[in-house]
Amino acid sequence: MIKASEAEQFVEVHSCKYDGRVSRRWRARVSEREGTLILLDAVFDEEIRHPLLGTIRHGTLSREFYWTDRWYSIFRFEEPAGALRNFYCNVNTPPTFDGRVLSYTDLDIDLLVAPDFSFQVLDEDEFEANAALYGYSTEVRERAHASVAELVRLITRREFPFDARGV
Q1: At what angle do helices 124-134 and 138-156 cross, to 10 degrees?
Q2: By the 8 A CB rule, do 102 and 29 touch?
Q3: Within 10 A of 138 (CB to CB), how many other CB atoms are there?
Q4: Is the pTM value of this prediction over 0.85?
Q5: 3-state secondary structure the chain
Q6: CA torsion angle 153 155 156 158 (round to 10)
Q7: How many CB atoms lie within 10 A of CB 117?
Q8: How many Cα atoms are found within 13 Å in the side-chain-facing hemisphere of 21?
Q9: Which end of the chain is more exposed for a tag (fewer CB within 10 A), N or C?
Q10: How far apart are CA 129 and CA 133, in angstroms?
């Protein structure tokens, strides 16, 4: 395990569309690496208004869990004072990481998880529309749906990072 305190390392995160376009980018600090897990910390530098998440205040911490062998990533949002705000899970291709840029393809399906671990699956219609538009392969479709099922299992069983270690 590598702790960021041993070597502060900032990277850029690229969330891409299926056609390769970078749709979002932000800076984050590598806080831990263990096996296939890459744990990043980022701070919202401006207030964001989101239709489902509401207002995300300046200073909100985003603790970001990426695995280079999993088809999803998990974001744990903490209020600036430290309280758990919610989790936001992205279904995406396994990220690539070259030490400077962590990049993944967002496959549109998301899960919004409240602090009480109730959750809702979001954007399945957007996934289906983009699957048709971009011609997602059978493998991509199957992996996306399997990832939703795995995330639901992790949430309902309170497995990492939805356990005491991640919360």
Answers
A1: 160
A2: no
A3: 7
A4: yes
A5: CEEHHHCCCEEEEEEECCCCCEEEEEEEEEEEEECCEEEEEEECCCCEEECCCEEECCCCEEEEEEECCCCEEEEEEECCCCCEEEEEEEEECCCEECCCEEEEEEEEEEEEECCCCCEEEECHHHHHHHHHHHCCCHHHHHHHHHHHHHHHHHHHCCCCCCCCCCC
A6: 110
A7: 12
A8: 4
A9: N
A10: 6
Structure tokens at 153: 């299992």
The gap from C-alpha 14 to its chain's centroid, in whole angstroms, comes to 11
Residue type for position 110: D
